[in-house]
Structures are given as C-alpha cells and as structure tokens.
Amino acid sequence: MEGAVDIAGGFAEVGAGQWLVGRGQPAAFFGTAARRRRKGWFVRDRSRLDLVVTSAAAKCADSSRPFLTHIPCAAPVAAVSSKVLVAPVAARSGDETVKIIPMSVKGALCVTNFASEWVVMATAGRTARVQVADGETLSVRPEAAVAWTGKRPTGFCPKLGIWDVLLPRGPRDLLLTFYGPCIVWIEGSCDPKFFGRSAFSREAQCRRAC
Fold first, then answer.
1. Which of 49, 60, 95, 150 is a Cys-bridge partner for 44, taking CB atoms 3.0 to 4.6 Å apart?
2. Neighbours of 46 (CB within 10 A)
3. pTM recorded for the entire structure
C-alpha cells in the first residue's frame, strides 16, 4: 500500500507508489521504477532528491549512510535534504535554505519540509531524538543536524575573521541554534575542516545547482 514503509536489515522497503528518494535510490526493486521530472520553477532540493514511481516493492539503502531513522510527520518536519532516503511524494510541503553563517549563503543547508505521512532519514552515524522544552535552546554542529520540528534554527559563528571570508575554507566553529519547544534529530559530528570538504558542503553544491 502506498504510504507504508518497513525498515529491516538496514533497508527501507516501500510498495507501489510515488516516492521522493535520495540519489541512487532505490537500491533494488521488483517490477519497474521510473524516474519522473519534478515540477516547479525553483525547487531547491531538486539536485538531491528524485521522484520515482514504482510498480511493486522497492528497497532503499545507502552504503555510505547505513543508519536509518523513521520520523513521523504528524507535525511539520524540516529535514536536511542530503540525508533524506525515502518519503511519500505527497508528504513534501516545500523546501528552504537555512543559513549557517549569518548574512551569508556560504555553506547553507538545503532543507526539505514535510507536513504529513513520514520520512526515512539515512545518516552516517546513529541518530538521537532530542526534546527541547519551551524557553530552552539547543546548539548543534551543522554536520550533525538531521531534522527538526518547530521554529527555523539560526546560525551562529562565534569568531569570524577576515581570512574566513576571503578564503574558501570558511570558519570552523559554526553552530545552529534551535529554540524550544521543538524536537531535533541529530547524528554524530565530525571535524568539517573547511567548506570544500565539509560534511555539509554538499548542501552548498545543492543550492548552487538549483
């Protein structure tokens, strides 16, 4: 039945229907799986997510991101586009760009919004669900952000030098600040080193491609 998903053995299995999937998905399928052009004049996540129509069961998994998290979207959920594995097409409500460096699009995150159904996220590390109470704030490294509910987070750069602006490396100590009440899903972080090789540089490439 379209809209249902089964997660087992590191794979997310869906049936016949229309799906929003990460690039290279599904990994295997019965019957046929046809890619369709995503409509819209300005679709920010077009370079990261495909629309696939399956005639039977299909299995989705990414070998570079083996940990799967099923997120129900009873409330609106914002998900980092490059970490979306599969979701019903009807669940998507739009997309947006979340700036990490205030007043700069450098290294910005491409985000896909979901307003119903569910989304399965694929991450390189295990995912934790963090509840942020009303009045609380949560600081998250950009490469660790997976998905969230509630208000849009704001970027924070504690120290921005002139060379961080002029050189392509970008600043190292970047944070996203989330404001409660909300729920934030995070994965383990790594040292992004600089924008050219960072865990979230793909988002900037996604934004430029759109």
1. 95
2. 19
3. 0.85
